[in-house]
């Protein structure tokens, strides 16, 4: 099972995200559920890496583990909106996958 934990601030701004484990839907390297989770999270990371006032700290050093956090280096309404939208993107996408594949994906959200 892949477990994804999304952490946001009280205002809905993305703080960090972690994904651990393998979905187990199919063998490693051909698992469509793992691929879907990976595409969502890596797309979110790509968007954040091009977001003004945001530093992205990521770790994808081991298969089956992906973690990233954001540091805001100056506040703006645009940056806050981008971080909220990215949190929504991750939340909605992972919830959809976990609804379709409940035995393979678990989603948790925390507020910091």
Strands of the largest sheet, in order across it? 3-4-2-1-5
| Estimated helix fraction | 25-40%
Total strands: the figure is 5
Low-pLDDT sequence parts: none
Q: How many domains in all?
A: 1
Please report the number of helical segments: 2
CATH class: Alpha Beta
Euclidean distance between termini CA atoms: 25 Å
CATH-derived architecture: 2-Layer Sandwich
Net shape = elongated
Order of H and E elements:
EEHEEHE
- The CATH homologous superfamily is called Cysteine protease Prp
Estimate the mean pLDDT confidence. 95
Q: What structural class should be given to the helix and strand makeup?
A: alpha+beta
- The CATH topology is what? Alpha-Beta Plaits
* Proportion of residues in β-strands: 25-35%
Largest sheet: 5 strands, mixed
């Amino acid at each position: 099972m892949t477990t994804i934990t999304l952490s946001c601030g009280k205002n809905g701004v993305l703080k960090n995200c972690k994904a651990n484990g393998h979905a187990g839907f199919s063998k490693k390297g051909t698992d469509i559920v793992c691929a879907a989770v990976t595409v969502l999270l890596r797309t979110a990371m790509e968007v954040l890496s091009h977001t003004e006032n945001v530093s992205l700290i990521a770790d994808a050093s081991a298969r089956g583990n992906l973690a990233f956090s954001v540091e805001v280096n100056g506040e703006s309404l645009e940056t806050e909106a981008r971080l909220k939208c990215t949190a929504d993107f991750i939340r909605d996408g992972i919830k959809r996958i976990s609804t379709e594949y409940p035995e393979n994906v678990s989603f948790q959200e925390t507020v910091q």
